[in-house]
Structures are given as C-alpha cells and as structure tokens.
Write a structure and sequence with these properties.
single chain, 104 residues, alpha+beta, Alpha-Beta Plaits, 2 domains, rod-shaped
Length: 104
C-alpha cells in the first residue's frame, strides 16, 4: 500500500513538473516579423554604415541590405520593436524609408 501511494505521488509530481515546464516554454516563444523598406542608398559606404548601426537596434534579429534594389529587410521581435521604430532608426541615420508592400 505504501509503495502504491509513493508511486502515485511520484507520478503526480512528475506530471506537475512537466506541465510547469511546458507553460514556461510557451511563454518564452517570441514571435518574429519581417519588413522591407526602400531606402535611398547609392554606394557601398552607405551599406557599410547601415550594417554597422542597424544590428544594434533593439529587437533586430537579422537584416539584409541590397544596394541593387535599394532595400533593407529586417527580421525583428515584435515584443521588442515595431515597423515604425525601424523606420525611425533608418531616418535617424539619414535614410528616410518607405515600406515595401508584400504580396500575399
């Protein structure tokens, strides 16, 4: 009888720990978003300037700058920043940005 009670208690504790762990993991999931802007960049030094500054903006996870198409693509955490903040960061560096509408 004591063995049965110990076994049931152990199973309940294990279930509780697993349930708590899965809830903690759900809370840690961060949603990412992407946005592309057209920016008036015309030389490699403009690209280098943006590559040096933009990764340090809060929430930026990745970025790609394309000189040929004059675009800047961001992957960012929506709980840390938003499109408007990223556009402001570009403007602060001297590059007014216009969002490229994505086709769905």
């Amino acid at each position: 009888m004591k063995t049965l009670i110990k076994s049931l208690t152990l199973v309940l504790v294990a279930l509780f720990v697993l349930a708590s762990n899965s809830n903690a993991q759900d809370k840690k999931i961060k949603k990412d978003a992407e946005v592309t802007y057209t920016v008036d960049i015309d030389c490699p030094s403009c690209v280098k300037k943006l590559e040096a500054k933009l990764p340090h903006e809060i929430g930026v996870k990745d970025l790609k700058i394309d000189l040929a198409t004059k675009t800047v693509w961001f992957k960012y955490q929506i709980d840390k920043t938003n499109k408007e903040n990223l556009a402001k960061a570009l403007e602060k560096l001297g590059y007014p940005a216009k969002e490229v509408e994505t086709k769905k």
